[in-house]
Every structure is written in C-alpha cells, then in structure tokens.
Amino acid sequence: MARSFILWLHGLGDSGPANEPIKTLFTSPEFKRTTWSFPSAPFNPVTCNNGATMTSWFDIYEIPVTADSPKDENGILKAVQNVHAMIDKELAAGTNPSNIFVCGFSQGGALTLASVLLYPRTLGGGAIFSGWVPFNYSIIEHITPEAKKTPILWSHGIADRTVLFEAGQAGPPFLEKLGISCEFKAYPGLAHSINNEELHHLESWIKTHLRSSS
C-alpha cells in the first residue's frame, strides 16, 4: 500500500490527543502505512460560551447551531490556512494528494468541509461528523474545479441538540448547487457524538478511496 495521511480535527473545547484512540479502530492492513495527525485548536474566546476562552478553531455565535446560524467567515478562513499548511507539509513528504483525508467532528467537521473545498487540489476525501456549512455562497468563487472532485462523507445524528440535524441536512443541497457530490448518512438516536458505527463506516469509506500506488 502507498503512504496515506489522515488529519482529524476535534470539536469545540476538545483536544487532539483526546481523539487519538480513534485510530485504534482502523485495523485493516490498508492502514499500515497511514500517518495520523490530531492537532489541537488554539485557545480563543468563544461567543456562544459567554466569551470564555477554550480550544476553538473559529468563533461560534450560538448553540444550538442551526442551518441559519451566523457564521464567522473570517475566523474559518484563518483556520483553513492552518489546515492547508498541514496538508502541504504532508504533500512535501511525498504523500499522494489522493491519499490525504481530512476528518472532523462538530466545529472540526465544519472546518473539514471548508478546508477540502478551499484546497486547490483533489484530495482523497473529507469526512464531516455532526458538522455544518460554515460559510455562505460567496465562497463559490474560491472553489477550484479540482476541489469539487474531492469525495465528501457527511454523517449526523438525528437526535443531535447541539448542532441540529437540520444544520447537517443543509449540507448536501449546498454542495449539490456547487456541483459536488456527497454521501449523507443519518444515524437515528445518535446525539452530539460519534459512535463506532460511524467510524467503522469511515474506515470502509476511506479504503474504497485509497490509491494503491503513490
């Protein structure tokens, strides 16, 4: 198998190291040459938490997040630059862009979407868990034809009361208007969290998109 890279972006107030056990579920031989990265967001004041400082990729103005919640577009674009730097570093190390996957939960899922759409090349895929669309249609002019070819997996719990299911449901139609296909999976009874069923599906989804030669 060729070398591959999986970048995992955590949710608000969480940390990268706290999410590292996720990689233990990926036991298939295809992942023997996979490098994982679990970065932590910087500490920033967060509006929805009364300005309290915590790990946050960008600002969130209200909880629950709905399909119509206001968006911190400047903050998301700054965070995207940091994610792109991580991807560029991996490309420089010799990883084929088709074997680079960005995944994220909640705020990290929103950042995942922004990062893969705004990256100028086609990546292996972007996987969004309990996320939302963190920008408006004005972003369209910055999306390259190559970025539109990056596969998208979107998973969301129907019982989510933090990032409402409707916020997740708004994702695929947004992407379709851009000419981007998306696999959307709804999980009945799942609140604002990730379960093993989602992660096992992620493993098989990444396996189908991995390139065997670099």
List the helices and strands and how they pair.
Elements: E1 4-9, E2 34-37, E3 43-46, E4 52-55, H1 73-92, E5 100-105, H2 107-118, E6 125-129, E7 152-157, H3 165-169, H4 171-177, E8 183-187, H5 196-209
Parallel strand pairs: 1-2, 1-5, 5-6, 6-7, 7-8
Antiparallel strand pairs: 3-4
Helix pairs in contact: 1-2
Number of helices: 5
Helicity range of the residues? 25-40%
How large is the share of residues in beta strands? 15-25%
Number of strand elements? 8
- The arrangement of helices and strands along the chain is EEEEHEHEEHHEH
Shape: globular
The major sheet is characterized as: 6 strands, parallel
Rounded to the nearest angstrom, the radius of gyration is 16 Å
Spans with pLDDT under 50 lasting ≥5 residues? none
Strand order of the largest sheet: 2-1-5-6-7-8
Q: What's the overall average pLDDT, rounded?
A: 96
Distance between the termini: 8 Å
Structural category: alpha/beta
